[in-house]
Amino acid sequence: MGKVLVEKLLRSCPDVNALYILVRPKAGQSMSERVQDMMKCKLFDRVREDNPDFHQKIIPISSELMQPGLAISPEDVQTLTSCINIVFHCAATIRFDEPLKHALQLNVIATQQLLSLAQQMQHLQAFIHISTAYANCNRRHIDEVIYPPPVEPKKLIDSLEWMDDNIIRDITPRLIGDRPNTYTYTKALAECVVQQESGKLNIGIIRPSIVGASWQEPFPGWIDNFNGPSGVFIAAGKGILRTMRASNDAVADLIPVDVVINLTLAAGWYTAVHRPKTALVYNCTTGGINPFHWGEIEHHVMSTFKRNPLEQAFRRPNANITSNYLINQYWILVSHKFPALIYDLFLRLSGQKPQMMRIFNRLHKAIGLLEYFSSQDWEWNSDNMNMLMSQLSAEDKKTFNFDVRQLNWPEYIENYCIGTKKYVLNEDMSDIPAARQHLRKLRNIRYTFNTVLLVFIWRVFIARSQMARNIWYFVVSLCFKFLSYFRASSTLTQ
Ligand SMILES: CCCCC/C=C\C/C=C\CCCCCCCC(=O)SCCNC(=O)CCNC(=O)[C@H](O)C(C)(C)COP(=O)(O)OP(=O)(O)OC[C@H]1O[C@@H](n2cnc3c(N)ncnc32)[C@H](O)[C@@H]1OP(=O)(O)O
Ligand SMILES: NC(=O)C1=CN([C@@H]2O[C@H](COP(=O)(O)OP(=O)(O)OC[C@H]3O[C@@H](n4cnc5c(N)ncnc54)[C@H](OP(=O)(O)O)[C@@H]3O)[C@@H](O)[C@H]2O)C=CC1
């Protein structure tokens, strides 16, 4: 989301002088190398075309959320406090399996520290915090208000400071209560921390639901990660994922990333100009406005990947969702574990390292963590989103479009799937004929395998059971009778 925000600011807000972005070194790359890489990304093609010198506006600031004071140097603090007008805070850990202490540090303590830095900013007009629509997923109906936190954040921070990691792991389920993970729990606490500061700053809180590929900007279908449904779509397109627990009729509250960013920018403008007395919360969701369901998503994902197959698929794409636990377990056994075992056996016999079972174990862990969100639905009030839209000029409504009533879901899902192929897996669209050919080969292997298996089982059965033999002779004689009748009647008509 950070990248998409930077791109949109550069493309649609030419009067913005500079963008200060907090970046950490990662995976052996320095801060500047990472920023260079980011600017080379396809996402920035349109900006690059309009202004090849756009990089001059980007000023990276070294920062690490795990460190005290966010590890921002005193000189950088000086720069930030004197130049910044608007803060967009979207850094977080979004992992569902994050240990509580880590999630608390990244999502709550770092937010607190950024807020105290913001308070020193001399020209700050607005502080926009990105939360999640699922921060209060323990409720069915979610209004645009900050709900009382499950625990006073300061008390939890103080307690976890002295606790051993093992103790924290043991008490985590009790602490998070009816929330599914540490992510949603700490995001709820972060909202509370933001509210505690809302007296001193002009604050807006954006709560997106499930962020997906871009709808329109900078081009349809842009996505570059496996988060949320993207990994599921890819696993289904590769023919690996065949079954998942989800409710066909539950609303799939996907929200395109460009919609979230447009709303975020509009909220930044509104907060700075109108300075609301209390923090305004914007539920940024689609379900109440233009609902679409997981069953429909399944249909369109499968249809897209059959027409535009991914390269080197493991099997022909054919995934089904079910809300029934036992049916899902059955298909996991038959369509995941059994083929994985056979394939690993084949790899072993051909002298290679088995890998399919390992892949499936990781997939099962990932989908196990997502099921909570795909098996039920929520109702979000979106009055503030509507109010904000009504405040925009006709031109801004076009430039910062977040009107999801216009979203055509089948077209969006098709672009999303093609986006995962092009931008996540870096596959070329010109390879589609070869990918189709590969699917035909897989289909023939399946037919041959099924026929051999059927004949084998039947042979074993016939050898062991008189009744099976009788049925077999009966069926064969019936076939012969039918054939001779067919021959006789065709001779008569001639
Ligand atoms: C076809 C029919 C489909 C119909 C649709 C049905 C259901 C829809 C499915 C899901 C919808 C629910 C979405 C809910 C979102 C809620 C909204 C939010 O609040 S946003 C926050 C969203 N956060 C996430 O999505 C993060 C989830 N991910 C994790 O928590 C972790 O990645 C993990 C799943 C626990 C895995 O952790 P692990 O340590 O094992 O692996 P890594 O993260 O290090 O990743 C290793 C490797 O795998 C790639 N990866 C990561 N996630 C996935 C995935 N889901 N599928 C496939 N691959 C994945 C990752 O990029 C790494 O790759 P590499 O090693 O190459 O870097
Ligand atoms: N994705 C989704 O579906 C949704 C996301 N959100 C919220 O939107 C926001 C952005 O999410 P999204 O873009 O999807 O998530 P990403 O994981 O892609 O981005 C998170 C950002 O936080 C940074 N970050 C994480 N840990 C640290 C650290 N220790 N020090 C410095 N920076 C760090 C990451 O930097 P780095 O690149 O160095 O890792 C990255 O830029 C989050 O607040 C999330 O809660 C809300 C609803 C849905």
From TrEMBL:
GO terms for MF: alcohol-forming long-chain fatty acyl-CoA reductase activity; alcohol-forming very long-chain fatty acyl-CoA reductase activity
EC number annotated for this UniProt entry: 1.2.1.84
Class of enzymatic activity (EC top level): oxidoreductase
Main localisation: membrane
GO cellular component terms, semicolon-separated: peroxisomal membrane
Gene3D superfamilies reported in the protein's UniProt record: NAD(P)-binding Rossmann-like Domain (3.40.50.720)
Transmembrane segments: 447-465, 471-488
Location in the cell: Peroxisome membrane
Domain of life per record: Eukaryota
InterPro entries assigned: FAR, FAR_C, FAR_NAD-bd, NAD(P)-bd_dom_sf
Protein family: Belongs to the fatty acyl-CoA reductase family.
Function description: Catalyzes the reduction of saturated and unsaturated C16 or C18 fatty acyl-CoA to fatty alcohols. It plays an essential role in the production of ether lipids/plasmalogens which synthesis requires fatty alcohols. In parallel, it is also required for wax monoesters production since fatty alcohols also constitute a substrate for their synthesis. Catalyzes the reduction of fatty acyl-CoA to fatty alcohols.
Protein name (record): Fatty acyl-CoA reductase
Species of provenance: Cirrhinus molitorella (mud carp)
Taxonomic path: Eukaryota, Metazoa, Chordata, Craniata, Vertebrata
